[in-house]
């Protein structure tokens, strides 16, 4: 019985198995939790996709898609905005994204305008985005403000 010999694993094989397991765990975490949480140093931009989507909604005169559907913009520099194409095209604060204005009459009230899940409020005293030019039904002395988170 003393002459039994087994085949042993080489050190290279063990290292490759460990590395493969680490890569597999990172991939699983990335796809389940989201890559921005697993690797926050990876910056991605979807501005061109949002601009193209807004242009498409305008060209086919899709009022709901242009005026109401919330778009998530990530510009690759850590800035994130969630709002409609109508707001992106109408506010000077978002002109850096180059969303083209559209001839669709959205006719939104102040409470229908959202930016980053914040709803517009008439005559708010809080600091925020002044969306008065985008809404209908305001009196001359009223303003519609969407607060900044």
What does this protein structure show overall?
This protein has helices at residues 11-33, 35-38, 47-59, 63-67, 85-90, and strands at residues 71-74, 80-83, 114-115, 118-119, 121-122, 128-130, 144-147. The protein has 2 domains: 12-42; 47-147, no CATH class. The longest helix is centred in the first third of the chain and has 23 residues, at 11-33. With 149 residues, it is of the alpha+beta class.
Measured distance between first and last alpha carbons: 75 Å
User: Which residues form runs of ≥5 with pLDDT under 50?
Assistant: none
Number of continuous helical runs? 5
Question: Could you state the order of secondary-structure elements as H and E?
Answer: HHHHEEHEEEEE
- What is the averaged pLDDT score? 87
| Number of structural units classed as domains | 2
The largest sheet has its strands arranged as 5-7-6
Going by helix content, strand content and strand pairing, the class is alpha+beta
What's the β-strand tally? Answer: 7
Radius of gyration, CA atoms, in whole angstroms:
25 Å
Query: Strand count, sense and closure of the main sheet?
Result: 3 strands, antiparallel
Which shape, going by the Cα principal axes? Answer: elongated
Strand content: 5-15%
Helix content: 25-40%
């Amino acid at each position: 019985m003393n002459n039994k010999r087994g085949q042993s694993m080489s050190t290279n094989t063990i290292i490759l198995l460990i590395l493969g397991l680490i890569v597999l765990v990172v991939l699983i975490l990335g796809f389940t939790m989201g890559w921005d949480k697993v690797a926050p140093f990876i910056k991605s931009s979807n501005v061109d996709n949002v601009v193209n989507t807004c242009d498409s909604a305008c060209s086919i005169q899709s009022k709901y898609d242009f005026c109401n559907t919330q778009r998530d913009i990530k510009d690759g520099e850590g800035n994130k905005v969630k709002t409609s194409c109508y707001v992106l095209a109408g506010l000077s604060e978002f002109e850096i994204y180059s969303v083209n204005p559209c001839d669709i009459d959205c006719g939104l009230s102040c409470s229908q305008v959202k930016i980053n899940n914040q709803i517009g409020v008439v005559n708010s005293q809080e600091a925020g985005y002044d969306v008065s030019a985008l809404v209908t039904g305001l009196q001359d002395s009223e303003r519609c403000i969407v607060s900044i988170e």
